Amino acid sequence: MPRCVAAAVLLLTLASVCLACTPSGGALAEGEGYRLLSGADMDIYRDSGGGLGIEEVSSAAFQARFSPLKADGLALGYTRDVLWVRLCLRRGPLAPAEWWLESRAPYLDDIRFYARRQVGAGWDELRAGDRFPVNSRAIVYRTAVFPFELPDGTPQVFYVRIKASTSMSTALTVWQPWSFRMQVQRDLLGIGMALGLVLTVSAMNLVNWFWTGQRLYLAFAAFMFMMAVAVAAANGLLAQYFFPESDWVAHGLTRVLHCVFYGFSMVLVRKPLRLAEHFPAFDRILPYLAVATVLCAASVPLGWYVHVMPVVQWLQPFIAVVGVMACIRNVRDGHLGAGWMLGAYLCFTGLMLVHVSRALGLLTWNSTFETAAPALIAYAIFLHFGILSELRDERQAREAADGEATAQRRLAEQEERLRHEQSLFFAFVAHELRSPLGVLLTGLGNLRRSLPQVAPENAERLARLNHAAQRMSGLIDRHLRLQRIGQPDFEPDFALEPVSLPALRALDEIRALHGGRDLRFQKRGALEQDVSMDAELVVLALSNLLDNAAKYSPEGTPIRLEVEASASMVIYRVINAGEGLPPDLAERPFQVFRRSRKSVRTKGGFGIGLALASHVARAHGGALVGGHRDGETWFTLRLPAGPGEAPDAAGKEMPA
Length: 656
Prior knowledge:
Layout: H1 2-20, E1 34-36, E2 42-47, H2 54-57, E3 67-68, E4 74-78, E5 82-89, E6 98-103, E7 110-116, E8 123-128, E9 144-149, E10 156-163, E11 167-170, E12 172-175, H3 177-212, H4 215-234, H5 237-241, H6 248-268, H7 270-273, H8 275-278, H9 280-295, H10 299-302, H11 305-333, H12 338-359, H13 372-450, H14 456-485, E13 495-498, H15 501-513, E14 519-525, E15 530-533, H16 535-552, E16 559-565, E17 569-576, H17 597-602, H18 608-619, E18 623-629, E19 632-640
Parallel strand pairs: 14-16
Antiparallel strand pairs: 1-12, 2-3, 2-5, 4-11, 5-10, 6-9, 6-12, 7-8, 7-10, 13-15, 16-17, 17-19, 18-19
């Protein structure tokens, strides 16, 4: 009786399993080397607590909880749930009995495959995933591969338990062993070509950085090398070939590299994309986003990766779309290399959209993970040529700027040489003219003394000759003084002097030259103080300003010299009733040889007076400003109360 009960229970269990296993897909045929499983071949159940075991899941009462996979692929996004997959498989009459099941995602934490024991009750369990070293798996390979058998054409049920701290996204494929081995060779060839190209690009940029010294080459070389390591880790190559006894490389390093790779890629492309030009606000926050993305790597040991990484994944398509928009604008603006960068970002955007959509569970297309290799190769090639073109454009711009700087430097050297030659010329002319002028002035003086009684017309002629000689002598003296003050190494002879002393001495000189003019002196402020100045130079400047005022103001109008002093500044202001500055000299009236055509015709000269006064002001750390208002022309000589205290000469100053 107990045996009958046991047999009945066994028959009921087998019947329930068979009823639950009613695959809509066809049988595995002999010539079918592999089959990518879809919703027709498997049902799923999500264990939110993660505490169910195979005995409970495989029980007859539990079968109704499984639901058919409505999508073609297995992409459920980031979750901590444990996923149970029930597979219903059978083989055709001539198909082999031995098959392999592969989970194409190399970075799932824990994958367990359950097949019913052929001898005795219970289930055989095979384990793989990141939490198990590669050399401890049933089949030593970078992805999870489980061997199983289909003894006859009867439908067989298998269970797969998947636990992940990253995206619950994978593709389950059933292989014949020979077909799997051939696919492995093709996969390794494709991945090897992609890695070889990426490493080659990295090496080329490293050589370019060594020869040119441009840091963007070094950054791009590091980025390409990081990409190669990230691809090798994401595809399980590091775990299989370099660290087969470690579970941390497959589980932790891949996730850390994802964060570092994403963060580094954000910063690398800021300059080639010209984000500061097109999206300045985004360019300013991008470094902070990059740092935050890199710091997300800390979520791996803390166990927060499943919560942090979805945010990072959502961020990547947004950044890629901004990059595409920047590339389009660069192409429109005609920047060199913008087309290459656009091609690179279109590849990157397409790759990122597919990857992120599958990782977030939005795209259930059952693609394999090696299909990204062509897009990755195209991205690396386009990005390489884009950055090369950008750097070539930058180098050409820098060479043009260097050429312009060289031309400016040569022009400055030429101007300095001309100034030096001009100084030598003036010194030579002055030296050659002083002797005949001295003879002429002495002869005129002797002639006037030897002829006490001279006819009026001859006396007038002698006066004109003497005036012309005196004028020529004064012109030579002013030229020599201007050349001396304009030397770069000229230093005034500072001494403490009364504020009013230079003004009084200048008035005395001008009264001797222009005896008929009305010269007035006005004091303002505390003039009893002494200030540090070169009194001889200040007298020279004021006498030239007063001389100009006497020449260019109407006869009979007064000329005022106002002196104002404070604790920090000394102001000398010459005011007359002149016509003001001519329009052709309004912007730069204080340069030698810069005079209006009208003044040259009427008064003659070379415009040395204002230039000399301006040089004196600058030698003291001050400034000379001028203007015209309400029929009055004024020039203000502003000097600091001590050497080295430069006053603020900006703006237009009005007479008091």
